[in-house]
Amino acid sequence: MKSILSGIQPTGDLHIGNYFGAVQNWVRLQQDYECRYCVVDYHSMTMPYKATQLRENTWKMVFYLLACGVKPENLFIQSQVPEHVELGWILNCVTSYGELQRMTQFKDKSDQLRESDGEAFVSVGLFDYPVLQAADILIYHADFVPVGKDQEQHLELSRNIAQRFNHQFGKEYFIHPQPLFTEIPKLLSTADPNRKMSKSLGEKHYINLFGEEDRIRKQVKSAVTDTGDTPAGEMSAGVKNLFEILRACGALDAHQSLTDDHNSGALKYSDLKEATANALVELITPFRDRLAELNADKRAVKQQIQESSVAIRKRAQQTIQEVRELTGLASIK
Ligand code: TRP
Asked: Are 103 and 139 contained in the same domain?
C-alpha cells in the first residue's frame, strides 16, 4: 500500500475552506492508503504565538480532525515525535541558503510580519520552515503528500533535498515524494467577496466549521451578494461564492435548480442563502455530534493520540537510526 503524509497547523478554528480544501480529502484517502496526519505544532512556533495558546490549539485541532473522520491511529502530534527535528537538522546541511531564499511563502510571511509590526522579528525558524516540512515527509518515506497548490514549491524542495541527500551519501535512501493536488473550491470571504476566505481577515470573514448553527445561518444570511461592480446578467462574486459553498456541501439538486432560477432571471437571493445555510448545517451536524461525544471523554481521546504518536514514532526512530548510520554520526548506546 502506498503511503501518505500531511500536516496541518493548529490555528485555532477550522473553517469550511480548510475542510473542503484538506480535511475532507484526508478522510477519504484513508480508505486506499497508509495515512499519517500530523498537527504541526513545531511549525506554529515560526510565527509569534503564546505557549498556552499553542498547546490548547494543538489539542483543539486534534479533536476537530477526529470529529471530521480522521482515524485516531492515523493522527499524531508532530512534537511528540521529536525525531522530525533531528532529521530537520541533518537535512539543513544538504539544503542551500539560496534555495530557501527563493521560497515565496517565506517572503509572504516575513512581509506580513514587517507590516504588522514595524520592527519585525523574523526568526531563523520561519526561514527554515520548509526543511522541517521536508523532514516530516521524508522521515516516513511517504509516497504522496496531499496539499494545496500553495505548497507546491515546498514539495519540490523536499524532492531536491531527498535527491541531494541520496547523492551525497551514495544511496537511493529517500524516495521522491509526489504531491496529490485536489480540486479545491475557491471560497471567498462572505463579508468581503473580493477576498479569499481566511482566518487572518477576522471572524466575520470565515465560516467556522464548528461554529454555532445560529451563527452560521446569520452569517450566510448577511453574506454580501452585490458589490455594485458586476456587469448586468453576470453573477457577482458573492453570489458565485454561495453557489460554490452549496456545491462543495454536495447539495447538487438545490445547486441545479437555483442555477436554473439564475439563468431565467428568477433567482431570489434569500432562497439561495437559505439553501446554502441548510446545506452547511446538514454537513456540519454529524461533525458536531461526534465532537460532543469526543469531548465527553477528553482524557480517553488524548490517551489514544498519545498512543498513536508512540506507534508512529517507532517508524521515525528507525529512519533516524539509518540516517545517523549513513551520515557518519556517532551511534547512541
Ligand atoms: N506547510 C503546510 C501548510 O502550511 C503544513 C505542513 C507542515 C505540511 N508539514 C507538512 C503539509 C508536511 C504537508 C506535509 O499547509
From this structure: yes
Same domain, 134 and 283: no
Q: Which residue has the higher pLDDT, 198 or 285?
A: 285
Give whole-number Cα distances, 19 to 11, 205, 331, 332, in Å. Answer: 13, 15, 43, 42
> How many whole angstroms from 274 Cα to the centroid of ligand 1?
35
Q: Are residues 34 and 176 in the same domain?
A: yes
Q: Which range of residues forms the domain containing residue 158?
A: 3-184+297-327
CA max distance for the chain: 76
Ligand 1 contact via 58 beta carbon (within 6 Å) = no
Ligand 1 centroid to Cα of residue 42, in Å, is 11
Q: What separation in Å is there between the alpha carbon of 177 and the centre of ligand 1?
A: 13
Ligand 1 in reach of 284 Cβ (< 6 A): no
Question: Closest residue (by CA) to atom 11 of ligand 1?
Answer: 7
> Global pTM?
0.94
CA gap 306, 311 in Å, rounded: 9
Q: Angle at CA 136, nearest 5°, toward 135 and 140?
A: 95
Write the CATH number for 206. 1.10.240.10
Query: What mean pLDDT is predicted for residues 195-216?
Result: 89
Mark whether 283 and 301 lie in a shared domain. no
